[in-house]
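2024-03-11 09:14:02 INFO queue: dequeued item Cytochrome b5 heme-binding domain-containing protein, len=181
2024-03-11 09:14:02 INFO validating residues
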Amino acid sequence: MRETHHLLNNVVATKTEHHQHCNPHLKTHHQPFPHHTWKKMGSKSVTLTFEDVAKHNQKKDCWIIVNKKVYDVTPFLDDHPGGDEALLSATGKDATLDFEDVGHSDSATEMMEQYFVGEVDTATLPAEARNNQPPPIQTTTLSNESSGFLFKFLQYLVPLLILGSAFALQYYGKKSKTNES
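2024-03-11 09:14:37 INFO prediction written
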């Protein structure tokens, strides 16, 4: 437990130094959670409960959840192109769909990594927050791909066969009339 709390203090201290370096006007910063709300996952990542993340919902302390990851976007509020309200309205829920609906650039997604705090324990997400996650990407099987190819092939082949038959009938029809004369 002591090791987890030590990890938390290192993460918060590092993030505080980073936030103050990026935004010198940021004078206050959030206090770390009690050590019992954090779970150690590895050497650098922590798992947070949804309830703990949802507490960070103010302009001076703003955390959001995107793709099961928690980000402290407090220092970015004033710089966000959509304004601070866009980020503040994304607190207290899984903001994955909101984030993806806007169509953020790859550089915006990469920039988020500097605000990474940890991961959210998905078991603690409320039902409505779980429903806000994008549906899993469905993979197509080989049989679906081959039947799709066959359908497209037939879609073009049938009209060509009809057209070819019409020309053949017209050609042979004229040829048989000239032979009769």
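2024-03-11 09:14:37 INFO annotate: Confidence is low (pLDDT under 50) at residues 1-43.
2024-03-11 09:14:38 INFO item closed
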